[in-house]
Structures are given as structure tokens and as C-alpha cells.
Amino acid sequence: MKRVALALVVLLAFLTQSLAQDQTPDRSATGGAQTLEDIMKRQRGEAVDYDFRRNATGDPDSAAAISSQLGTLGGVSDPELWRALRYGSADITVSSGGEEATVLMQDGGMRWLAWRKGPLATYGAWLLGATILLLALFYLLRGRIRIDGEKTGRTITRFKAIERFGHWLLAGSFVLLALTGLLTLFGRLAIIPLIGKDAFAPLALASKWIHNNVAWAFMLGLVMVFVMWVAHNIPNKTDLKWIAVGGGLLKKGVHPPAKKFNFGQKMIFWGVIVLGVSVSASGLSLLFPFEMPMFAATFEKLNALGIPQLIGLGTLPTALAPHEEMQYAQLWHAIVAFVMMAMILAHIYIGSIGMEGAYDAMGSGEVELQWAREHHGLWVKEVEEAERQAGTDAKNALPAE
Amino acid sequence: MKAMLLAFAAIIVISVGANQALTHMGFSSADQTTSPSVRLGE
Lengths: 401, 42
Hints:
The complex is a heterodimer.
Chain A: H1 2-23, H2 36-43, H3 51-54, H4 78-86, H5 108-142, E1 155-157, H6 161-195, H7 197-229, H8 238-244, H9 263-287, H10 295-305, H11 307-310, H12 322-351, H13 360-363, E2 366-368, H14 369-375, H15 377-397
Helix pairs in contact in A: 5-12, 6-7, 7-9, 9-12, 14-15
Chain B: H1 2-24, H2 29-32
């Protein structure tokens, strides 16, 4: 028994020693500088804890006296100064450019570049491609959703001119922003090989001008649409019936009751509002570089809620260089934009070739009464009731003869 | 259709207006990334 215990103690001692070695590698051979093992680890793509370099930036407090040897260095040697520059802790004064100009080296930029060229572009393209394919498949299987009943030849006003104006302000600017955004992200990959760099340069410049300035029209449209339609988009129990039959999208002749907006439209509305606000916020951050950083504060709140830890992302960084703020803003801007584009592709489909009579709602604003009865039955009743009420009131207002 | 064309025209007006306003307010990239001692466009 004693032997077993002894063996365990020895084993434990070895284990602790090896663990301790893992935590702080022996760098005495290089005088504390990085070792061959550090370099090999980095080349193998493994994580290296660089604190031993990051923190080795000298100490002015323990400087040799000015009269002694090397005293004039002030406790910080040249390599230590370079390390401080490398890890962004050097005390730098600049004549212009603000805080961001004091960051001389920022390796987060490489991670951002790799992410932008890699997962962002790849998954973004897949998302849009898959959406278009699914819509094409839906069209092939279901065909155009026709007006089932007999057309009445009469119309009902679905959207007033101001509503259509707001919609098209948002929609027109969104399409421009989406196209110019895609050109910015995929230009180097897809357009330059086709037309060459000389032809792409003015295109990219014009695209940037459009993207930066049309953004304001998008934000105005977003506010207009929110104010005009929010009251009609509060979810209610009618939506449950719509969900139960899949909105009648999958089967001919199925028409769940709906008010002015059905549940599908409500999803589009809230998707556009929430994602639109998010894409606008990150867009403003990009429009005014370094002026409105928002990711460090957001990450801090998310960390406190425990969401990143829960989904395995660990604790998110909260000390971000000004450039890193911009890099996160760009990635988030693009991710949100891709989701919106996928959603809007489906919206464009169902509002044009996907459904007979749907486009009129935003075209002339007047829709076929039968279409309205099939897709927004409760809303038609509300409108007719209001008209009847108005008619009765008008009749009552006439002087009796 | 008229509302749509009007909205598209508004997009152009807002964009050109925003660009002019921001440039005159000193929000161009050139203005933002230089110190006052730099004479731009001279």
C-alpha cells in the first residue's frame, strides 16, 4: 500500500512539473527571448502565449543612474522599445489623426483580412446562391401563386402614395447598397479577372461613392417604413392560423385569414427593421471611422450575459484597438447585409413573379379585390366596414328635407 | 408607379445632398485624416 502511495506521489510530482513547464516554457537559453520551440509552435499554427514578449518592455523606474553605464537608456533598451511598439503599449505622440494614429502595428488586421476573404465571402456567396436556388425550386414545384377565385374587376387601395414612396425609398436604396456592397467584397475576386484593374478602379470608386451616400436614403426609408407600418405588424393570434397552414404558400386554394399584413410579411418587416438598424449602426461606424466605436462595449455586455461563453466562443475581447473596432464593424456590417439580402430576395420573388396580383400593391397601390380577399381577408372586411361607416355618417350629415 | 419614380429621384437628391453637406462640413476623408496645418486642395 505504501509503495502504491509513493508511486502516486512520484507520478503526481512529474505531472505537476510537466504542467508547470507547459505553462511557462524554459527560455533561459535565449535569455528570455523567444525560443526555437516558440517559433516552431507558431509555424505549426498553434497558439503561443506572447505575454513574455508583450510585457518585456523595460522598466524606467529601475533605470540605472544617468551617470552610470547605459544609464542614458532610461531603463528601456531598444529591443524593449520595439516590443512596446509591436504590442501597442509604447507611449506615442502624434501631430494628427487621433488615437488610431498612435497604433503603429496592429496584427488583428491579418485575422480580419483572412476572415473577410475566407469565411465571409464564401459563406455569403453560398447563402445568396442557395436562396436563389431554393426560390427557383419553389417556382418549379409550386409555380406562380394565382388568384384562385374569380376576379371582380374592382380594386381596393392597399397602399397610399406616401406608403409606396417610403417602401421604394428603402427598396431602391437597399438594392443599390447591396449591389455596390457585393462589388466591394467580391470585386477583387470576381470582377478584376473579368475587366482588369484599370477598368475596375473607376467602377470601385463610383461604387464607394454610391454606397456611402445612398446610405442616408436607406436610413430615412427605414424610419418612414417603421413609423407607417409598426402598428400593423404587432403579432397577434390570427398569425397562429397563418403559421398552422404555412401561409397557404404550399397548397393551392388555402387562404388563412390575415389583416393588413400576414405573418410572413410581419417577419419581413421585423427582419428589415432589426437588421436594418444594425446594418445602419455598423455602417455609421464605418462612415465616420474611429468616431463611434461600439464593439468593445457590445462585447462587454455580451460577456456579462454569458452568451459567447455559452456558444463556445469564450470571453470576447473588450480591449480593442481603434482599427479592430473598424474591422469588427466591417465584418458585422457584411454578415447582417448578407442575411438581409437573402431575406429580400425571397420578398422580391413573392412580390413579383411568385404571386399574381401582388406587385400591384406597391405598383399602383390598387389591388384586385379578389386578391385582397384571399390574402388579406380580415383587412378587406375592416376597410369595407370603415367605408360603410363613413357612408352612413355622410348620409346622416345630410339635412333632412 | 409615380411614387416609385419619385422615391428613386429622392434617393438621388438625398445622396447628392448628403455628399455636398458632409464635404462642406469638413467630413471628407481628406479633412478628417489631416491636421489643420495641412492645406488641402491648394
